[in-house]
């Protein structure tokens, strides 16, 4: 720890222990040292600003760190709009959500150090397996060829781990969980409205049918938007049924589900629609007492949606009919052939974090910019049979926890467990045909919800109706 960090930490400690005079003096000394280090070039200006911002944020929000986590889904909507140059010809793109997660993690660490051993830390078996996978990715540094691609691939795992860790440690009350669900609902509503606005601007263009990968909003390609909405919609529907019928904000979750389902249909993502449909069938079957009402609702919703967007329904039929002959399918088959070739060449440890793009640019097209449309194949290419084995155990642990969670919960809380299961079904199926699990934004949503399931395991959602 540097002298500046020591001064800042001591200052914060003294402030917390009510010795404000000495605390301010140490903070002031730490600020001066940071200024000198930055002025002399010994410390990067970005690092100095980040450290000062974390300290200031902790001083102001040390008991409200969870707000950063709750705001993370909403902070993903503007996309990566922050750009700064790391090196010549290397521009790093940053989203507000990444700042929230990194800041939250640093503040939690500072809070833990200052209040040790009073602050409990949860990690869980899933967290250890995710950490093992991340360590394997980090160690691939010793045999990678492209540092920029390495960082891009590694940061997905770093922020996945941060999202999971903060969720399991900060969402530790029914009120925080409820606030997080509202954040998810607002995120779904805003993303859906953006899709509707884009749809209105494009009219009935054939681009929405056959050139979806080239159409984007700030969050990312519309295929990614469709996958994200499909993933969180079952959980929103589950929370709608979980809430008391007199809850004033309950209608927000139903509205988010309706708008999100319509947006998924408009985007015409075959895998998203298929995975969401299977997940909802599972959820309805498990929701005793409300099956008939839900079936009637979905029937009416389908009729109204078809009547309003009949041309899109025709486009979906055309897309399904051309599944095995369209250019996207041919491109994916080529992806799998190249992936098999790479695994044969690098069977044990794979090509390393982010390096798949470099290999695909060599074997397919110099302008290739896409990950593999299958998370199992992606894991095998990135980290070989070792990585695939760890990834398989990680998946087994996630679904094992989900299964045990449903058995453990009782009463009204049980619907949340089943909704989480439905969301995991969407992720498991959709990720076999689309780029999801290893994209940064989807990964953050995924691991926030897995962390959510882990904290619910500790009983934190029980008693909300009391």
How would you portray this structure in words?
The structure is a single chain. The protein is mainly alpha-helical and 466 residues long. Helices cover 72% and strands 3% of the residues. The protein has 2 domains: 1-47; 139-456, no CATH class. It is built from 19 helices and 4 strands. Strand 3 (216-217) and strand 4 form a beta hairpin.
Euclidean distance between termini CA atoms: 46 Å
Q: Quick one: how many beta strands?
A: 4
Sheet with the most strands?
2 strands, antiparallel
Structural class: mainly alpha
Helical proportion, percent range: over 70%
Strand order of the largest sheet: 1-2
Mean pLDDT: 80
Weakly predicted, low-confidence segments: 12-23
**What is the percentage of strand-forming residues?**
under 5%
User: How many domains make up the coordinates?
Assistant: 2
Radius of gyration: 23 Å
How many helix segments? 19
H/E element sequence: HHHHEEHHHHHEEHHHHHHHHHH
